[in-house]
Amino acid sequence: MHAVVQSALFVRSPTLAHLLSYLCEKMFAGEGDQIKEYSIAVDVLGRPGEFDQDADSIVRVQVNRLRKRLAEFYSGEGAGHRLHIAIPVGHYVPVFQETTEGTATAVAGRGHNKNGDTGGRTRTDTRILRIWLLLGLIGLLLLVGGVFLARDKLWPRPVASPAPRAATIVQSPVGLPVGDELRILTGGIRSFVDRSGKVWLPDEYFSGGTPVRSVAAYIWRTQDPTIYRTSRQGDFSYNIPLKPGTYELRLHFAETLYGPEDAGGGGEGSRIMMVTANGKPLLVDFDVLADAGGGRTADVRVFPDTSPADDGFLHLNFSSVRGGRAMVSAIELLPGTRGRVRPVRIVTRDVPYYSNDSRWWSADMYFKGGQLSASEETAAGTDDPELYTTERWGHFSYAIPVAPDKYSVTLYFIERRFRANHGQPSSDPGTSSRMRLFNVFCNRKLLLRDVNILEEGGENRPLVRKFTGLEPNAQGKLLLEFVPTHDYATVSAIEVVPQ
């Protein structure tokens, strides 16, 4: 328990850490029958003595958040733990499960329903039940095996020809396509795990060029500058073996040498290159610094409908055109969908998130400017309050890389800085009437003018705004700018989906 509550994931959520400690300590003390919705609300969440669980769902919401946070912990930092803590659905007493080759068996604590009653058989009853089930299964297998042997003797089957090699990529019914993923840190000598838990491998499959390491202290538009501090430069190629299928290719760049404030001096025009895939041009006369809008800035270009050549390899060629040397910081290959890019879902925090509809949201990326902040206050009027626990606020932008197409963009907001008492900030009720107002632009075109979340969505309630028919700029980006007109702009999550 201490290993969990002291982890980085729970340190950032003190309310959930306190809740988990309370539930476990009650169980350790033999007081599991005292763990009820009312006691949790009053003892842990600070609700008054007249708490009404039928009118206030705070306990159910917070315990649901705790379940999801535990699942996130054991899929990442705690994956190697022998014992896992779980809160069974419909119960509040924790169960300690021993993991064995991917399975989990309860070893301590018994489930109680939300009224504190014991829910489950004793360990002896469970063993007896398992023995009878095992004997029944063995008998069934013997019977089925006998039937199949008799069938093969009476009705011989024709020999099937070998099945053709099939693509490994399939379409997930919800969320992103699933399949093999490959990430290469070009010029890198060791692997790296990014903020979203994705593994980047050391440089491989290359021919020619020179590995280069940058000393740039900061790279804009990323929480993972390590991806952009190494590169392969010169004239070089990558021959990457791939299984048949459709992939989405992402090329990552960052200009850290050329620029008025950098070691190489110069600026736009100092490094021009050409990139081809299986002999077909992807980028012609490409200038990283101009494309990113500045030096030391992460720049991503996206290419859907990428497939290996007939020989089973993806052949990428990088060549210098004039001035400087060709370069690339990282290569990413993801399972794709024919004719469209993968949806982009970003939540404004430094770890990824699975929403209640089983969609995966990446940790914050592609941003420039602003600050992150979090709140333990539970959002009202939503089935997924945890999506709104964090925000990026200030004067900031997101440059989201996409391919030529039309897209829908959904923005998720919530107001916690100002309250309904005439728009005054809760921390300073004596000041004159104030409120948050800001504009949102996409590629310099106005999407929202003077957004007032408090008026449009309500106090501590989400405000969701969706826009359709948006197209990328010449740099292959949806540039979303959040510009304050009074106080600061804010956003909790961004979703970009091809139409």
Question: Could you walk me through the main structural features you see in this protein, from its secondary elements to its overall organization?
Answer:
The protein is an alpha+beta fold and 499 residues long. It has 3 domains: 2-108, no CATH class; 182-335, Galactose-binding lectin (Jelly Rolls, Sandwich); 344-498, Galactose-binding lectin (Jelly Rolls). The protein has 8 helices and 29 strands. Helix 3 (14-28) packs across helix 5 (58-74).
Secondary-structure map with pairings?
Elements: H1 2-5, H2 8-11, H3 14-28, H4 37-43, H5 58-74, E1 83-86, E2 95-100, E3 103-108, H6 123-154, E4 182-185, E5 192-193, E6 199-200, E7 206-213, E8 230-241, E9 247-253, E10 272-277, E11 280-286, H7 288-292, E12 299-306, E13 313-322, E14 327-328, E15 330-335, E16 344-347, E17 353-354, E18 360-361, E19 367-368, E20 371-374, E21 390-394, E22 396-401, E23 407-413, E24 437-442, E25 445-451, H8 453-456, E26 463-470, E27 477-486, E28 489-491, E29 493-498
Antiparallel strand pairs: 1-2, 2-3, 4-15, 5-6, 7-8, 8-13, 8-14, 9-12, 9-15, 10-11, 10-13, 16-29, 17-18, 19-22, 20-21, 21-28, 22-27, 23-26, 23-29, 24-25, 24-27
Helix pairs in contact: 3-5
